[in-house]
Amino acid sequence: MTRILMVCLGNICRSPLAHGILESKLPKDTFYVDSAGTANYHVGDLPDQRSITVAQNHGIYISHQRGRQFKTSDFDTFDYIYVMDQSNYDNVTKLARNTNDIGKVKLILEVDDTVKNKRVPDPYYGEISDFEHVFTLLDLACSIISKTLTNKDL
Ligand code: 4NP
Among the options 13, 14, 34, 50, which is catalytic? Predict the structure, then answer.
């Protein structure tokens, strides 16, 4: 089983979308996908209604997800940890115990060479169009991740 964790700040806007999108592109018998937030503001909460709506518009169901906070043991559980922006990267790597932990953490848009700005913008204070933009960015990145992981002999 290959395990992939998507991380943002609140675990209600960006990482639930990344979680749902990647899950939809990978076989369930060999891949486990989850998401978490670096903050504890939304532990136990459903994803933001706007993320739910945008996902649903693209045929992806994320309403079963609940917010949880990133924890140090996630470095043991997961093989790949994708973060949405530099601040998430800093918050996650602050909890790393060694270089192996740090090596698991990547900015998700770094998988896409065609994207110049590597930040997935936080849509929390934005409009539904900002959530659509996040979906587009994450959908492209997740297509690349799924292709890379399913072609790789792990
Ligand atoms: P996310 O967005 O990190 O994409 O889930 C946010 C959600 C909530 C807050 C900030 C960002 N907040 O401050 O509550």
Answer: 14
